[in-house]
Write a structure and sequence with these properties.
alpha/beta, Rossmann fold, SIR2/SIRT2 'Small Domain', 2 domains, six-stranded parallel beta sheet, two-stranded antiparallel ribbon, 11 helices, 36% helix, elongated, binds ligand BJW, binds zinc ion, zinc, NAD-dependent protein deacylase
């Protein structure tokens, strides 16, 4: 099967799930996690930044790191990959966008309500009482590796934490449920720019494959999802996705 066959599959499908990871935002200038030279985990230690324990031990370091990443996302723009995903919604009867990304580039490209499995950089909440908190309106104090003290909760004075899902934390139940339901009901799942290493999210394309859906994978590099993919479309998302829709 090649790009043309994959395009035909998409065209004829009734319910498409698009499952995205950091790779779809790479060409916008948002760093991925696991790419060898440019990935965040090649320069930063996940255990000291992306766990609840890290936040308890050094809230200023963790909050500062997420502020730095939020400011990067605010400065960049959706790319042709995000735009193609938004356009796909107008070409098939039903489309569900499921993203592991904590950026808002799908929304800004015009995808109505992507399911965020790993939360968002733009939805901070209280670490104590869990109430949502406003984004800081202070001028940008962030910078790579710079400590920034987190704001305090207006209700209970607890520390405000980033609204993302850290290692060892449960994924938001409604998001995971919606994703699992869509994956088991779709006829095509298009996985884009994910290493497929992080669970339970990586179960989503596997679930679709077990339920009989065709799995189309867009990624410049091999991933553990290669064996379940009906077709692998190697290349950057901002090139392959528009080509798939023409
Ligand atoms: C391009 C491109 C271009 C480049 N175009 N492509 C089973 C087995 C082993 C371990 C576990 C397991 N089940 C659970 C675990 C533990 C853990 C886990 O999965 N660990 C593995 C890493 C080993 N999972 C968890 O801890 C999860 N929680 C949990 O299991 O809770 C259980 C529980 C139960 C009951 C009570 C309490 C708990 C939570 C996982 C949360 C993950 N969080 C992060 C950070 C979010 C916050 C933040 O942003 O800082 O989410 S980690 C990071 O990885 C982030 C991403 O969403 C996630 C996935 O990464 P993604 O998107 O795939 O990016 P990369 O960088 O890995 O890959 C990029 C890809 O793009 C590459 O393939 C490139 O080739 C490609 N690419 N340029 C297209 N231009
Ligand atoms: Zn609170």
């Amino acid at each position: 099967m090649d790009l043309n066959d994959a395009a035909k599959l998409l065209e004829r499908s009734r319910h498409v799930v698009v499952f995205t990871g950091a790779g779809i935002s790479a060409e916008s200038g948002v760093p991925t996690f696991r790419d060898a030279l440019t990935g965040l985990w090649s320069r930063f230690d996940a255990q000291s930044l992306a766990t609840a324990q890290a936040f308890r031990e050094d809230p200023d370091l963790v909050w500062g790191w997420y502020e730095w990443r939020r400011r990067i996302v605010q400065r960049v723009h959706p790319n042709q990959g995000h735009l193609a995903v938004a356009r796909l919604a107008t070409l098939v009867p039903q489309l569900t966008v499921i993203t592991q990304n904590v950026d808002d580039l799908h929304e800004r490209a015009g995808s109505a309500s992507p399911v965020h499995l790993h939360g968002s950089l733009f939805a901070p909440r209280c670490a104590t009482c869990a109430r949502p908190a406003p984004l800081p309106s202070t001028p940008d104090q962030s910078g790579e590796g710079r400590r920034v003290p987190p704001p305090r909760c207006a209700h209970c004075d607890g520390l405000i934490r980033p609204g993302v899902v850290w290692f060892g934390e449960q994924l938001p139940e409604p998001a995971l449920e919606t994703a699992a339901r869509a994956a088991s009901a779709c006829d095509v799942l298009l996985t884009v720019g994910t290493s497929g290493l992080v669970y339970p999210a990586a179960e989503i394309p596997r679930l679709a494959a077990r339920s009989g859906a065709a799995v189309l994978q867009v990624n410049p590099r091999p991933t553990p999802l290669d064996p379940i993919a009906t077709v692998n479309l190697p290349g950057p998302a901002a090139e392959v996705l528009p080509a798939l829709l023409t």
